[in-house]
Design brief:
Helices cover 50% and strands 14% of the residues. With 317 residues, the protein is of the alpha/beta class. The chain has two domains: 18-216, no CATH class; 219-313, no CATH class. The protein has a six-stranded mixed β-sheet. The radius of gyration is 22 Å and the shape is globular.
Length: 317
């Protein structure tokens, strides 16, 4: 007999979705939350008291924006910069990407005629909803050190990786309790967990209130749904592409499989969205989606959230 999940459905937005994390921690009114989180991750000798959030908002958020970087970039009073990003889904070369983010920040500090002494430390903080490293450590920190004696070459490069699936290890060891609380907030699967955390910590009480306000914003919910749809479409397409490429077993198969698989994945997700919003769809709709081009599928996907009827999704206007 199949067991059903009897837990109440979550009403708040999930901060593990990158756009929700970005809207929550990048908002001006939530500056105290961002500062608390950074202090928990970096544990600086002198606590961070104020930050300037640098503009990184993309011009548009649509289904085609699956590869856009939704990072929160801040500058401290001493000129140091920190880039924080939530990775909800696995992407190739994550560590190389982290190093690229750091290099982009570091080199952007100098202009023609500037001295190297003007350079300031740059830090990248990556939070993943999957396990990336082979170790069991929840919070990993990387610096530039001499291989034999561990001497620090410079503190200008620092990378932090927080792997949420490994949070229990930190909780068991009571390691970094402040950061572990933030890990519990990000990892919470139900609103009841957030309510309990709000009772345990004043700052998480503020965080829950901020998340409640964000979740009540219709525009924010629409953006979150749109972003999640884009990521689901991308993942479904990549999975189909890999399967077809493996079956063909040749280089050309990958190119063809990528195109066909992406369209197949987009069609599958779009059919699911139509079913959820408008009810079960006739075979004719599934057939139409199956034979559609990627541009048509993308256009229809962008209409789903605001459309009032199925016909308006497929209208030519």
């Amino acid at each position: 007999m199949q067991e059903h999940d009897t837990r109440p459905k979550r009403k708040t937005l999930d901060p593990k979705l990158d756009i929700v994390f970005w809207m929550l921690f990048g908002a001006e009114q939530n500056r105290e939350l961002l500062i608390s989180f950074l202090n928990a991750v970096l544990r600086p000798e002198v606590p961070i008291e104020s930050v300037e959030v640098l503009p990184t908002q993309p011009e548009r958020l649509a289904a085609s924006d699956k590869n856009i970087s939704l990072d929160v970039r801040v500058r401290l009073q001493n000129g140091e910069q920190i880039d924080v990003e939530m990775q909800s889904q696995r992407r190739p070369a994550l560590c190389e990407r982290a190093l690229y983010y750091w290099a982009r920040m570091y080199t952007s500090q100098l202009h023609r005629g500037d001295q190297y002494t003007a350079l300031r430390r740059c830090v990248v903080v990556l939070i993943t909803n999957f396990s990336e490293l082979s170790s069991e450590r929840f919070h990993s920190t990387f610096q530039v050190r001499e291989r034999h004696d561990g001497a620090l070459l410079t503190d200008h490069l620092e990378l932090h990786l927080l792997e949420l699936p490994k949070l229990q290890e930190a909780l068991d060891k009571n390691d970094e309790p402040s950061l572990s609380l933030w890990g519990k907030f990000l990892s919470a699967r139900a609103d009841e967990e957030l309510e309990q955390l709000a009772l345990e910590s004043p700052v998480l009480k503020q965080a829950k209130a901020a998340l409640d306000r964000l979740s009540a914003d219709d525009v924010a919910r629409l953006q979150a749904e749109h972003r999640e749809m884009a990521l689901l479409t991308y993942e479904a397409g990549m999975a189909a592409a890999r399967e077809e490429a493996e079956q063909k077993g040749m280089a050309t198969g990958m190119a063809t499989g990528m195109a066909t698989g992406m369209a197949t994945g987009m069609a599958a997700v779009l059919l699911r969205l139509l079913t959820v919003k408008f009810g079960p769809q006739p075979t004719s709709v599934a057939d139409r989606l199956e034979g559609a081009s990627q541009p048509d599928l993308l256009r229809w996907s962008e209409r789903v959230l605001s459309a009032e009827t199925v016909e308006s999704v497929f209208s030519s206007g």
